Amino acid sequence: MADKTKDTNQEPRLSPEAFRKAGALAEKEAKIVELIVFNLGDEEFAANIDQVREIMRIGTITPIPDSPDFIEGVTNVRGEITVVIDLKARFFLPRKQEVDSKHIVITEQKKNLFGLMVDEVTEVLRIPESEVKPTPELVTRIDRVYIRGVITLEKRLIILIDLAEVLQEEELTKLAKLAERHRSAKETKVAQEETAESSGDRAAEKTKEQEMKVKETSKTQNTQKEMAESADEKKKKRQRKE
């Protein structure tokens, strides 16, 4: 008679499908994401480091006339004209008079550079991707379309935003046009300054030429006068001898 007793020490077998799912889940849980963490008012935000080209301190920003309130202006990033956006104004977050923005997060979208002005970049955070949780209701005052999830660390709540969503196609087009308009205006101004400088140089050169001609004419006249005086003197001497 066959022994039908089950071996309770035998490990349960997983089907190939279940094994693949378990492997994918383990890989997802083990995946590490790197985030740039920054402050906007009283809230902490983060963006995936893959969406950030660099972080720089706020320098000279040139205002753009007739631009939306959230556009601070343009700045030069290694020779490239970059539109600077005030994220607090973009998200309609209150501004504190005593808090000055310190950093600009540079991101490249659709082959254009954009600078996102924040209060301060505080750290680079490395966490498992599984730590990014779905966004609960009423977690923040900004539009949920920009949010990819939230991270909770002890008593901190960090809101992960998608920079590509912040700079949507419509916004990108508008901002790119503003940058192009400013770039064209700057190039026109430079060309005008160069033309004015060139015209000034030509005028100065012409004036110099005229002065040289006057000097040469005066010199010729003086020479002729001296020669006439010399001839007259010689004539008088001959007359006296006679």
Topology, element by element:
Layout: H1 16-30, E1 32-40, E2 43-48, E3 54-57, E4 71-77, E5 80-86, H2 87-90, E6 103-109, E7 112-118, E8 120-128, E9 147-153, E10 156-161, H3 163-166, H4 169-241
Parallel strand pairs: 2-10, 5-7
Antiparallel strand pairs: 1-2, 1-8, 3-6, 4-5, 6-7, 9-10
Commentary on this structure:
By secondary structure, the chain is of the alpha+beta class. The chain has a domain at 30-167: CheA-289, Domain 4 (OB fold (Dihydrolipoamide Acetyltransferase, E2P), Beta Barrel). It has helices at 16-30, 87-90, 163-166, 169-241; strands spanning 32-40, 43-48, 54-57, 71-77, 80-86, 103-109, 112-118, 120-128, 147-153, 156-161. The strands form two sheets. Strands 8-1-2-10-9 form a five-stranded mixed sheet. A hairpin with a 2-residue loop joins strand 4 (71-77) and strand 5. The protein is rod-shaped and about 140 Å long.
In short:
The protein is an alpha+beta fold and 242 residues long. Helix content is 40%, strand content 29%.
Primary descriptors:
242 residues, alpha+beta, OB fold (Dihydrolipoamide Acetyltransferase, E2P), rod-shaped
Number of helices: 4
Task: Just name the CATH architecture of the domain at 30-167.
Answer: Beta Barrel
Which fold name is given in CATH as the topology of the domain at 30-167? OB fold (Dihydrolipoamide Acetyltransferase, E2P)
**How far is it from the N-terminal to the C-terminal residue, by CA?**
173 Å
What is the level 1 CATH name of the domain at 30-167?
Mainly Beta
Q: Look at the structure and name the CATH superfamily of the domain at 30-167.
A: CheA-289, Domain 4
| General shape | rod-shaped
Poorly predicted parts? 4-8
Taken as a percent bin, the fraction of beta residues is 25-35%
Please give the number of β-strands.
Answer: 10
Rg for CA atoms: 38 Å
